[in-house]
Design a protein that fits this description.
heterodimer, A: eleven-stranded mixed sheet, two-stranded antiparallel sheet, 14 helices, B: alpha/beta, six-stranded mixed sheet
Chain lengths: 426, 239
Amino acid sequence: MIAFRQIIQEMAAEKLHLGLTILAIAWATVSIASMLAVGEGLRQGLIRTTSNGNGDLIILTGGFATLDYGNFSKGKQLNLKPDDVDVLRALPSLAQVEPSAVWASSVTFKDNGTWQQPLAVYPQYKELTGLQVTAGGRWFNPLDIKEQRKVIVIGRNAAVSLFNEDDDYDWDNTPDLEASPIGRQVKVGEEKFTVIGILKNNPSNIENGTPIDYAVFVPFTTWQRFHVNPSLGAINIKPAPGADREKAAATARQVIARKYGATTEDMQLVQAQDMLLRQKTMRQFLIALQSFLGIIGLVTLAVAGIGIANVMYATVKRATRDIGIRMAVGAKPGAIKLHYLIQAFITISIGGAIGLTLTYALVQLLQNIPIQGSGFYDYLGQPTPELSFSIVSVVIFALSVIGIAAAWFPANHAAGITPLEALQSE
Amino acid sequence: MPLVKLEGVTKHYESGDESVYALDDVSLIIYKGEFLSILGPSGSGKSTLMNVLGCLDKPTSGFYQLDDHDVSTLSCNQLAAIRNNKIGFIFQSFNLLEYATALENVMLPLVYAGVNIKKRRAKAAELLKRVGLEDRMSHKPNELSGGQKQRVAIARALVNDPQIILADEPTGALDSKSGAEIEALFSELHHEGRTLIVVTHDISLARRTKRIINIKDGKVVEDEILDRSSAIYRRREGD
């Protein structure tokens, strides 16, 4: 019921206007698609950052009492002890429980020091937080634990600040290590430790916000050897797969509170922080950001839509006599409407296809630009724009809605012309 | 059985304070196979009459029956279907699509009749051959002479085998030689038994038809049958 060839012929007669419209649609498509792709990249970057380190852990710490109850009067501190871990490990809702403690001395090599104090951990901590050791070094093994060896594993940026001769330390752009520090001796307080491993770059955090790149690790038992009746810094908990995280955290709190004869009501005394829930807020923020970027793109697209409507009105006006001819030989108003809707659809398809292709090329280009060593960039999880299937779908959906909306009125206008007035127009 | 029956058809426009009657109580009967002309000076209402007959315009009041259909009550879509199946138009200014070839122009009514492309092409080619344009099928209107354009328009008017062919000043934009060719073509179509209505102000063109309806100020002032030998009129006299 539609003369497809003639739609094309009519469009070919409007090359300039159509070309400009297609350009506007292509540009709008690029803008909406790339905005969404950048937002998606940021989001994926965050997910990458948080899937390592403490991202999916519950961190249990002791605090000060705010209620008088049992063994605790207001202001008394609760210190977690190494054997608390054994109690928690008995809980079925927790998959993994690892203690960590802070050795309250700085790490030094000659005149250089580190920003962070050493963390005392068991070998299992590495797997729990996704740490990786660079080639040539190693992580703690059971013998280090058993023999309480004075060995140390250092985060990459901490290692650079310790061992590189250059004093100009650039926080945003860490230089490479000048030489391998494996086997060198550093001091923790007054004790000499041997470096056995350097960690790979990792933008994630551990504990309560310590960047892995700046962290320093010693074996847990070695720390115990130098500390009498020591207190833990934190207990890192990984809930069992499928377990209700909030319940698991509450149970862990309860168990510890009971063990010390404290009340579970006191939220300050035993604190459980679910890092995943904290990141959920961040993720929600990023989705909001992405939506905002998307809306900017959508507005651009809407402006392009107005352009389509404009060109369509002009086309209809120029083609009024032709519409009259078509109607005189039997075209129904619906066929005229369809004629112009198809025309708009073709225009939008071409513009959209060009726009998406350009965006794809742009995204490929950006993904292949090597950006490395920038602290802030690493912190964001090395985001690169990503043109995912869902983004392409959203863009195509937005194009369709705006295209139909833009073409609807001119097409209706065309269908509403009576054959007589159309034939009489010139 | 009359093909066209108009009863008290009136068309008036409000222009400013004035009420203009383009058609004023026109009653008319046209039989199948007639070759008639509607004659009148410009502004007489003859074009309005043609537009009403061709279902391009609706009368303000009155009754119009075309081939058993009460046209005055039909919707836009139904009128479009009537124009598509029952009426063929020939215009003074040809009214061809400029960017389409002769063949595509002739195929156009079949597009809206839902005929498939193969049949469309065959039928349109056949009719272009019929009007002597078999070697001009892929030419666009701007590559054709006035007479050739009008023959394309005639082929387009015939392509759906319409009940009525309506021609509005068909020779008005043509030189006398081309005009004569078109007139000859009309006579042929008449002899094939088609119903032709020619709207014109040209008395010599009107004289070549079999019946002249003279219209003035929206009223039929004279209805003259020129050739009473024709079978249609003999039968009518016997009624």
